[in-house]
User: Which sequence fits this backbone?
């Protein structure tokens, strides 16, 4: 809490908006211009104190929750945001599972053989290579599109809280059900095959978690460096 | 007037206010309230999404400037907006005339 009612209101507004960052900044800037002018007019007209005038301006503007609801992103914006979240995950997942599958395939002779006559053959090194290429292309494509969107100031709408974690729960569940149905369909599937699929997924998931942890560490280090720079700048200006 | 009923006509009212000349959000809302003699009194913060929607539809354009050390967004009616406003005015006049005739109002 800053002690300035308008600043506190704008903080609530900023925290509640699920719009792309550039648009959020514009909405907040526009709201601040409105509220400051409205408070100035109310203060002059009704001889109110600054805090009272600010509170009157906020009351006329409407509760932050209601304004947030009015700025709710459209279904199309949500779809783009969801696609931008799913795209890199799918690319990384495909790249890693193909890479790990190829390593397992290359290092294990029995996996290269067709275990049961009626069964479809296991993916070949070429198919794993194709998966890796497709995964790499997806990741590269995502980086290009994200860069372009950032430069144009478009960004993506922020998804509602909990949607990403729900997706993280539902996706493996759906994959698990699909895998289970596959087992029912082909009850003679060899354990080795299932083990290979499970290992690919587990190792890929593990690598994604390690990657995420490393990225979080980098972000924390950046924050720490930025904080130290701010303190040093403040000390310099105070000394002057 | 019911806020829900007003929302159905908000776009036309905003275009009409901006037909008088470019203005920033606060001025648009103040003019809307003054011209309706206080009848149209929506929560001010909920008017901005309508302005953004009209801009997205190409009926308004906006530009940013500095005012009292703050960033200010000024809206202006586009040619497409002027045409849409004329169409909406005609439709509204016809609709209001029909209602008035049924209610027995004299023109």
Assistant:
């Amino acid at each position: 809490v800053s002690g300035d009612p308008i600043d506190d209101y704008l903080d609530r507004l900023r925290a509640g908006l699920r719009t792309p960052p550039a648009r959020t900044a514009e909405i907040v800037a526009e709201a601040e211009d409105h509220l400051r002018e409205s408070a100035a007019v109310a203060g002059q007209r009704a001889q109110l104190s600054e805090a009272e005038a600010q509170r009157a301006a906020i009351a006329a503007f409407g509760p932050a929750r209601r304004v947030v609801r009015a700025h709710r992103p459209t279904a199309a914006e949500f779809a783009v945001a969801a696609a931008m979240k799913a795209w890199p995950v799918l690319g990384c997942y495909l790249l890693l599972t193909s890479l790990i599958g190829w390593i397992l395939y290359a290092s294990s002779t029995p996996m290269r053989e067709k275990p049961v006559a009626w069964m479809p053959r296991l993916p070949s090194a070429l198919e794993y290579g194709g998966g890796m290429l497709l995964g790499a292309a997806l990741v590269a494509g995502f980086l290009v599109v994200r860069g372009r969107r950032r430069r144009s100031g478009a960004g993506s709408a922020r998804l509602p809280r909990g949607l990403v974690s729900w997706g993280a729960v539902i996706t493996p569940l759906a994959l698990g059900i699909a895998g289970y149905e596959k087992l029912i369909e082909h009850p003679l599937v060899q354990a080795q095959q299932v083990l290979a699929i499970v290992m690919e997924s587990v190792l890929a998931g593990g690598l994604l978690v390690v990657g995420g942890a490393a990225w979080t560490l980098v972000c924390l280090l950046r924050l720490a460096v930025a904080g130290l720079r701010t303190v040093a700048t403040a000390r310099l200006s105070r000394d002057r | 007037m019911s806020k829900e009923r007003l929302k159905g006509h908000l776009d036309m009212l905003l275009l009409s206010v901006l037909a008088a000349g470019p203005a920033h959000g606060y001025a648009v809302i103040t003019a809307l309230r003054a011209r309706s003699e206080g009848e149209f009194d929506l929560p001010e913060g909920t008017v901005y999404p309508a302005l953004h929607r009209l801009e997205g539809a190409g009926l308004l354009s906006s530009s940013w400037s500095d005012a009292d050390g703050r960033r200010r967004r000024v809206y202006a009616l586009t040619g497409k907006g002027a045409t849409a406003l004329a169409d909406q005015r005609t439709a509204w006049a016809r609709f209001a005339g029909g209602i008035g005739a049924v209610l027995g109002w004299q023109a």
